[in-house]
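Figure caption, in words: inputs first, then the predicted bound structure.
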Amino acid sequence: MAEVVHTPRVFSGIQPSGGLTLGNYLGAMKRFVDMQGSGIETIYCMVDLHAITVWQDPDKLRHATRELCAGFIASGLDPSKSILFNQSQVAEHTQLAWIFNCVARMGWMKRMTQFKDKAGKNAENASLGLFGYPALMAADILIYHATHVPVGEDQKQHLELTRDIAIKFNNDFGVEFFPVTEPVIEGAATRVMSLRDGSKKMSKSDPSDMSRINLTDDADTIAKKIRKAKTDPEPLPSEVKGLEGRPEARNLVNIYAALSDQGVDDVMRDVGGKQFGAFKPMLADLAVDKLAPISGEMARLMQDTGEIDRILADGASRARAIAAPILQKTYEIVGMVGA
Ligand code: AQP
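Bound structure (adenosine-5'-tetraphosphate present):
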């Protein structure tokens, strides 16, 4: 069978499961903005259906979805250039997810480390949605025939599963219909770590607010969190290999490199030999410089939630126009009468 060449298209999503962190910004949103100017169609989604795989207070979910949209725009996404919408407005995501629930295997799902981390010791009590999360994520991507997905390192396993689902669907039905998507995991901060523990990723749901920088933090809070970030007593080395075995130091240097758009090698040349007492204020100034305009713009945009809702509705109708024919064709392939 002739191989189908899919037009390049970018898709990615973020859960409105709380405020945005520096990890979301550097690992995902900043990359989304870079890709917006690449000449490829870009589709970005507030994945509210993913968020409810763990309990969300309805009012907080509504607020977080609008705030996330404000964060996207404040970071540089232009709703006239990228499609911005919330997942629940485009029913095709869940319709395709059902098909993928029937393609994916239980064993594949059981191997997902995010499920194990989030379900913890009480997996029997986790929601069925949390277990099936990766099939919905595969549907989010493949309902647009997206070819490239910018994400942080933690999503690599889910993207491999998306590829497995696409390949199995194509094999099961003897078609070359779904693309085998490429993860785009690039930059100095693909895995931003907790400020309190260099072995844990920075997360919006970590119980300690000191573990993360939120995009809504003010300048004093950012400076305080960086000042109190866990480090070791040694000065910074002048070469990257000197950071081996020093996860907290490595994390702060990676954040500095990503925020200043430099390679880690270049940063090491500049800061090598400095004590953390000197480096942390440099990092705090840089973080405030880069993040304060974003949080200011988010606050301004949040004063007009009607406009945010209009942007999301417009994005949803543009997204549906791409998704509906792909779902229709999927139904035909699967053998649904009336499709
Ligand atoms: N610490 C991180 N470093 C780099 N990238 C990160 N991302 C998240 N944390 C980091 C990337 O942000 C995108 C959206 O993530 P998400 O909100 O959909 O889910 P998540 O990965 O589960 O993020 P959180 O902050 O840990 O949320 P909760 O606590 O609700 O689970 C993804 O591209 C992710 O890689």
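Residues 305-334 form the longest helix (30 residues).
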